[in-house]
Amino acid sequence: MIVTFALLLASAGVIYLSCESFVNGVEWLGRRLEISQTATGTILAAFGTALPESVVTLVATAFSDHDAQKQIGIGAALGGPLALSTVAYAIVGVCLLIYGQRLGRGRRAFVEVDGSRLARDQMWFLGIFVFKIALGLVAFSIKPWLGWAFLAAYAGYFWTEMKGGGGDAEGELEPLSIRPRDQTPHLGWILLQTVAATVVIFFASRLFVGQLEAVGPWLGISPQLTALLLSPIATELPETMNALIWVRQGKERLALANISGAMMIQATIPTAFGLFFTPWMLDAPLLVAAAVTSLSICGLFLAFSRGAVGGLALAQVGWLYGVFCLGAIAVR
Question: What DSSP assignment string belongs to 37-97?
Fold first, then answer.
């Protein structure tokens, strides 16, 4: 177990350092492609960190002959949004409270946000999420074809984000890490840094998840319950690290946009894979996850609708993950 915990800490450290490089590269990529800063967070950053998880879900559902592996894939499609809507937003809130005074946000760490945009994202997500949960309660022959509807929903979100304005940019853009002396680095260097960081994040995340799954039996938790309770936190670690880094840099709106965009990916693409390759029937623990996620989204919608959100309000949604853990253990 000493080796397992050492690998856990080492992989988490590698993920953090890689995310430092990733957020730097993706900001430069957004500038060179003339994409708004908000779309950089909701599309580029979210896609880069959520793509590896979507690939893992695809492998688990499409290329596994074991029902247990397919169930883990379904669990990932539910666990990802749960972890993002509770733990990731809560960490942003805690970071705001820690760095708020230094960043001039006041003791309660209130920040101005694009409330209408973020609230709209929560409603987009909730509508898609409720639909996919409803599909998990019934069985019918054309269900797999509805996977295309989820891909179309993300395509619509992508188009809306790319054509929308991004408001004023936050903070200063730091020099590209691998070319710190270049005032305007070549696109090739930007892509190299961003892609390399994404690859390292992917493999470090796989190592982190593997070690976390090894901890489950040591704690007396079944593999399925470990996958549902602990793995989502591990797989959403890159998005959480990105948010932490951007909050530390005073780019809170970019951090919130990254989580919001990642949630839209998690609500659609893994779900489409689940519908294509599994019966997509949800058991009791997954329904508990769905209920807690929906409750968190409703709270976030109310918070963002006000146009300004405080660190304490965001930190509060973290408690809901604890509610989920207790509920999942009770109904397993």
Answer: HHHIIIIIIHHHHHHHHHHHHHHHHHS---HHHHHHHHHHHHHHHHHIIIIIHHHHHHHHH
C-alpha to C-alpha distance for 69 and 77, rounded to whole angstroms: 13
Give the C-alpha separation, 110 to 239, whole Å.
Answer: 22
Query: Helix, strand, or coil here: 310?
Result: strand
Measured CA to CA, the distance from residue 7 to residue 109 in angstroms comes to 35
pLDDT in tens, 27-71: 999 988 888 878 888 888 888 877 766 776 777 777 767 776 677
State the average pLDDT for the chain. 83
Copy the structure tokens of residue 157.
């979100």
Q: What tokens were used for 166?
A: 């991004």
Q: Burial letters for 216-227: b for 16+ Cβ neighbours within 10 Å, e otherwise?
A: beeeebeebbbb
Q: Which pair of structure tokens corresponds to residue 52?
A: 């590896």
Three-state secondary-structure class, residue 156: helix
pTM of the model: 0.85
Letter for the amino acid at 303? A
Query: Which secondary-structure segment (H or E) carries 308?
Result: strand 308-310
Report the C-alpha gap between 317 and 282 in whole angstroms: 24
For the chain, the 3-state helix, strand and coil shares in percent, each to the nearest 5, are 75, 0, 20
Q: How far apart are CA 39 and CA 246, in angstroms?
A: 15
Does position 231 have pLDDT exceeding 80, yes or no? no
- Contacts by residues 186-195 (CB-CB < 8 Å, ≥ 24 positions apart): 187/29, 187/32, 190/25, 190/28, 190/29, 190/32, 191/25, 191/29, 193/21, 193/24, 193/25, 193/28, 194/22, 194/25, 194/26, 194/28, 194/29, 194/48
Single-letter code of the amino acid located at 237: L
